[in-house]
Design a protein that fits this description.
Length: 314
């Protein structure tokens, strides 16, 4: 194996590097870190700090080179599933997080010692979890339809960046959130299936209402019987089918019935009744009745005595 491949990145240079750069690294004991990168220094097995970018030296008797840490911005994608909304319908969000980690002061030494040993994937995962915790505070303030339309995305993004900057613990860790971008919202597969089923049920209900009940029951009966004949086992019990039909008939709206009502007998106007004093009716002038010529007493007047009544006091 080539000796160059075993060198630390702080000691490696390319073949077309400037001559003074090669001399410094090869003969003067300098180490070098490119821009936006620092090198971790250990004293034995203890974390001593970081050095760089640029040229630096170490004490080869008790110091050694450690991990190379990128201090500039780095971007990681995210997918946050099953976030709560104002309704009991979850939503998923996808996008990108731009953040930076700098182990140099004012980052606390104990915090830096833990994070410099993390891999890039582990550090990305930690930041994703921290941002997710903040996003969960804001999605319940919006409806599912609003989050699907992406209208509140800028408000959520700005709020999350501000809250991240206010977190004292994250500042002590040397983490800084540069940009948080929500690209789109997704409906979880389970929720999408439930929404499709609900929409299908609504469509079926509207379609069934337009079909007469007898035709619907006949179609249901025919389909179940055909499926039962196709296999060795009957998939539908006829007693259950009869019970279902009865329930459907009871739940269906009763049919409208037109009842023929005989009209009331015509009334004879007062002008066509018996003529006064004639004893005959206008409709049959040749017929007389015993009560012809008599009038009904007025209900408001006291009854009059008949002229044939003989008062015993007289």
């Amino acid at each position: 194996m080539n000796a160059t491949e075993n060198r630390h990145p702080a000691e490696t240079y390319v073949s077309n590097a400037p001559l003074f750069h090669k001399i410094r690294l090869r003969f003067l004991g300098y180490k070098h870190m490119p821009d936006d990168h620092v090198c971790v220094i250990y004293e034995g097995e203890s974390y001593a700090g970081v050095r760089g970018p640029g040229y630096f030296r170490i004490n080869g008797w008790h110091e050694r080179l450690g991990e190379v840490v990128k201090v500039s911005a780095r971007t990681t994608p995210f997918t946050y599933e099953n976030l709560s909304t104002r309704e009991p319908v979850p939503v998923s969000l996808t996008g990108k997080i731009t953040f930076s980690f700098d182990p140099r002061p004012p980052t606390e030494k104990e915090m830096a010692m833990a994070f410099v040993r993390l891999s890039a994937d582990a550090l990305n995962g930690f930041v994703q979890d921290a941002v997710r915790r903040l996003v969960r505070l804001y999605t319940p303030q919006y409806t599912f339809a609003a989050l699907r339309s992406s209208v509140p995305f800028p408000e959520i993004e700005a709020a999350v960046v501000q809250d991240f900057a206010r977190e004292e613990l994250l500042r002590r860790m040397g983490l800084k959130l540069g940009r948080f971008t929500i690209e789109q919202s997704l409906t979880p597969e389970r929720t999408e299936a439930r929404l499709q089923e609900a929409a299908q049920r609504m469509y079926n209900a509207d379609a069934v209402q337009q079909i007469p009940l007898n035709e619907l029951l006949l179609a249901l009966y025919t389909e179940l019987v055909e499926k039962s004949k196709g296999g060795s086992e009957q998939i539908w019990n006829m007693n259950d089918l009869a019970t279902l039909i009865q329930r459907l008939e009871k739940s269906a709206a009763p049919p409208t019935r037109i009842i023929d009502v005989a009209p009331p007998p015509p009334t004879i106007p007062d002008s066509d009744k018996t003529a006064s004093g004639s004893g005959t009716t206008a409709s049959d002038p040749g017929t007389t009745t015993p009560d012809a010529g008599k009038t009904a007493p007025d209900s408001d007047d006291p009854p009059k005595r008949s002229s044939s009544y003989l008062d015993p006091d007289l």
